[in-house]
Amino acid sequence: MAPGNWKRRQFLQSAALASLAASWPSVVFAERKFQPIADKGFKPDVEIELVARRETVSLKPGPATRVFRYHATLRKGPPSTLVPMPGYLGPTLNFVQGQKVRIIFHNQLPEPTIAHWHGLHVPQVMDGHPMYAIAQGQQYIYEYEIRNPAGTNWYHSHTHEMTATQVYQGLAGLLTITDEQEQKLALPGGEYDLPIVIQDRNFTADNQLQYLQRGMHERMVGFLGDTIVVNGQIKPVIPVKTRAYRLRFFNGSNSRIYKLGWKDGTPLTVIGTDGTLLEKPETYPYIMLAPAERVECWVDFSGREPGTDLMLYSLEFKGAVPRMGGGRRGGGGMRRHGMPQGAVFPVVKFHIAEKVSESPGLPENLTPFHRLTEKDVSDPAREIPIALSMRRMSPQLNGLSFEMLKVVDAERIPVNTIQKIRIYHDGHGMRGGRGGPGGARGGRGGMGMTMPHPIHLHGEQFQILSRIMRDQNTSDYDTVKKGFINSGRKDTVLVMPGEEVTILKPFNDYTGLYLYHCHNLEHEDMGMMRNFLVS
Ligand code: C2O
Ligand code: CU
């Protein structure tokens, strides 16, 4: 075992946790009711055995590929709860709002792991915080009620410093929720409701997954593969009929950002974003989809000629290359690998296979939506900063790196409040010398790098209040700005270089540690993650 792994394992041992617990305010550990056995009082509507294990799958002609994979067995609940996905993806978990769900998670991997339900509003002990990672052979029992509204979420590994490698090797799957409101809409269902999970990978000559070469550029940019994998398949062709579909796009890549658009410029109709439907359908010329983000589209193939193909692209965009704080592009001497961020390439091909005459109409209204405003903020005098920086080659939040159980004052949040949170690049948009709570120093022209960061907050979904470009040079921004979906509820927001995004986020119901981090998984594992302590 590599020394790094050994250290990590040591950390995960209960003895280490116990000594940390001793130095930690009781509020967190009162919450930390670790349950090695199921709670007898919990009456699940759905019970699933979920195993993380090694498998070999056939992804390319030739030798099979060794992957990590979630495998599930339904013990109780409607058969539609589990839908297998091809390739290395875990099965899609389909839940209904109000259901009580028990997931018995087994680790059969030769390393620690823990599963997180990205987008779900669940108690801290059910959230898959890395402090709960279990060793090989152990199990973790999740029990929670589905409180989220209808939407597309996902689940993935959240293991300390190993999230990137474990997700890369396959530990991810979709998780959908339906509710009464959504069922009334009669959106395209069954074979007309399709997940489009987009990831990128590199393969060795013998078809094995190849991860980063440890160069400086790779560490900063994250992993960018040269092979696009959709729904666990390389160069997939999706046969469709001449009618409307609900396509659930999900970016499951470690670091790659997609600018999704049809080659012929046909606009995209968006009906949902991270985890919820929109109030009304909206039209976009293209969609920016950062790691962990989801977007649901209404795609109507009516009027297309049977036998023809339609290619969805990732279109070219700029502003994704790390840039020195002074505004110069730091391109010189950096070795590229895979397809660069912002390159143009095909993502998935739809083949018009069959002509049908019936197609449902797009509903005018989707779901009622209460827009939060500044008036809803619990403490108007308070604004929580999330300053993004890339100093000394280390990506940080508020000048701090991840600490498993510690918070600073700015990270303490009273439960059942709505907070205003400003996410900005340290060195861009610093107003009046306001620094982060960790003492991060701003100022233009510093040595910090700016690059895009998809920022994710655990717990309840937030709303985007404003999005401001603070950089003088906005020409790069012009290549992306029409593709952001700022309405509806989100749990991940892409913050482009020079951009400042203010969000309003409720912290309701549950107390404890809730993570916030960059969902560029390489950044996350390098420490671009912190906790909020809700109490
Ligand atoms: Cu998708 Cu903290 O994770
Ligand atoms: Cu980042």
TrEMBL record:
<dbReference type="InterPro" id="IPR006311">
    <property type="entry name" value="TAT_signal"/>
</dbReference>
<dbReference type="InterPro" id="IPR033138">
    <property type="entry name" value="Cu_oxidase_CS"/>
</dbReference>
<feature type="domain" description="Plastocyanin-like">
    <location>
        <begin position="88"/>
        <end position="181"/>
    </location>
</feature>
<feature type="signal peptide">
    <location>
        <begin position="1"/>
        <end position="30"/>
    </location>
</feature>
<comment type="subunit">
    <text>Monomer.</text>
</comment>
<dbReference type="GO" id="GO:0016491">
    <property type="term" value="F:oxidoreductase activity"/>
</dbReference>
<keyword id="KW-0479">Metal-binding</keyword>
<feature type="domain" description="Plastocyanin-like">
    <location>
        <begin position="450"/>
        <end position="534"/>
    </location>
</feature>
<dbReference type="Pfam" id="PF07731">
    <property type="entry name" value="Cu-oxidase_2"/>
</dbReference>
<keyword id="KW-0560">Oxidoreductase</keyword>
<protein>
    <recommendedName>
        <fullName>Multicopper oxidase CueO</fullName>
        <ecNumber>1.16.3.4</ecNumber>
    </recommendedName>
</protein>
<dbReference type="Pfam" id="PF07732">
    <property type="entry name" value="Cu-oxidase_3"/>
</dbReference>
<dbReference type="InterPro" id="IPR011706">
    <property type="entry name" value="Cu-oxidase_C"/>
</dbReference>
<dbReference type="GO" id="GO:0005507">
    <property type="term" value="F:copper ion binding"/>
</dbReference>
<dbReference type="InterPro" id="IPR008972">
    <property type="entry name" value="Cupredoxin"/>
</dbReference>
<dbReference type="InterPro" id="IPR011707">
    <property type="entry name" value="Cu-oxidase-like_N"/>
</dbReference>
<dbReference type="InterPro" id="IPR045087">
    <property type="entry name" value="Cu-oxidase_fam"/>
</dbReference>
<dbReference type="InterPro" id="IPR002355">
    <property type="entry name" value="Cu_oxidase_Cu_BS"/>
</dbReference>
<keyword id="KW-0732">Signal</keyword>
